[in-house]
Specification:
single chain; mainly alpha; 9 helices; 0% strand; elongated
Length: 209
Amino acid sequence: MPVSAKRTYQSTELRQSTTIEAVVQLCAEQDPATLTTARIADEVGLSQGALFKHFPNKNRLWESVACWVSEQLTRQVFSAADEHQQADQALEAMFLAHVDFIVRHPGIPRLMLGELQKPGNGPAKSIIRQTLARYRKKVVELLNQGIQQRHIASGIDTEAAAVLYLGAIQGLVVQGMISGEINALQQTAPRIFRLYNASLQEIPDEPEK
């Protein structure tokens, strides 16, 4: 590849990456549904025409953003879990890593929720659904592993427990959005996980009277 072509390719990749990160940042400041390509182009210092050279249309841009979110979230959260052999510790590491990811990228919950609320089944929406399905599968696998390791009660409904796990994170994020104190989630998250983890333990039988 000629040097000039290689430089153009690298510049395109950089422009795309910068634009995607700008969209994530802007979603923290306003409703993603109201975010225009003109606003995005202005944020990255491009004309709308130049922006469309990198992304043919807004749907393709949103698809690229969804891919970025999926890759970044799963990579960071799953790698945090993989550092632990004990399943309950892996679940906690995932939980805290996910909250930390949201604190660093507060626009992501709005973006994901906005896509999931759209009618139809566009590419960005499909990517987010698949990401959440992979995430839930990972949690179920860890819960089953925890049962085998005897760190989690054998009678636990793992599918329901996975829903509760994701619900706890989503609830935390919503509370942070309501209060406007997203950064405080990092202090609250360990306490919420301790309550969740307690629900996974065996309940001792009541002594006979």
